[in-house]
UniProtKB/TrEMBL annotation:
CDD domains: Link_domain_HAPLN_module_2 (cd03519). It comes from Daphoenositta chrysoptera. It is found in: Secreted, Extracellular space, Extracellular matrix. SMART domains: LINK (SM00445). The keyword Repeat applies. GO terms for molecular function: hyaluronic acid binding. This is HPLN4 protein.
Length: 204
């Protein structure tokens, strides 16, 4: 499986525990466990924003200590804020996904698309706009590598890089995140998801 840090369009540190649970589910994941986050850290994960985990604790993994992430002279490891108040405190989420029952792909289109055009384009292709968890799973499991920014279902723009190269966002593999642009006026490509064995259920 794969862990992905998540925050919504509203910005960082806006989710209480229950909202974090819901956000992960909406992106085709669940809140990660401490063991899963620790494993991701062992594999090199370095993330400077604290997020909720399944047990109600708030943690973040640091592989490269630096001043703005709890000081440079602190040891590497998974930093732990302990158990926090589930209603009143707000952080990001660490989500986990382990299965991809279908295929994520970058849809070839003649021109770049607004968000609503992207939704329609995937639909016309018998698919749906991919969720964040689906793109991470495709990157990790299907080794999807595409140096083109595309819409995802939550309105964010991301792209998956397995083989890092200079013009594709740096030296580390990973899913690049360009944030949440204006859905109407900003134009990008789109990542679609087609479930195994058929068309996706209609969105209610």
């Amino acid at each position: 499986g794969v862990i992905f840090p998540y925050h919504p369009r509203l910005g960082r540190y806006t989710l209480n525990f229950h909202e974090a649970q819901r956000a992960c589910l909406e992106q085709d994941g669940i809140l990660a466990s401490h063991e899963q986050l620790h494993q991701a850290w062992l594999e090199g994960m370095d993330w400077c924003n604290a997020g909720w985990l399944q047990d109600g604790s708030v943690q973040y993994p640091i592989s490269r200590p630096r001043e703005r992430c709890g000081r440079k002279d602190t040891p590497v490891g998974v930093r732990n804020y302990g158990y926090r108040h589930k209603e009143s405190e707000h952080y990001d989420a660490f989500c986990f996904t382990s299965n991809l029952n279908g295929k994520v792909y970058f849809l070839k289109t003649f021109r770049k698309l607004s968000y609503s055009e992207a939704v329609q384009a995937c639909k016309n292709n018998g698919a749906a706009v991919a969720k964040v968890g689906q793109l991470y799973a495709a990157w990790k499991i299907q080794l999807l590598d595409r140096c083109e920014a595309g819409w995802l279902e939550d309105g964010s723009i991301r792209y998956p890089i397995v083989n890092p190269r200079a013009r594709c966002g740096g030296r580390e593999p990973g899913v690049r995140n360009l944030g949440f642009p204006d859905k109407k006026y900003k134009l990008f490509g789109v990542y679609c998801f087609k479930p195994a064995g058929g068309t996706p259920p209609a969105r209610r």
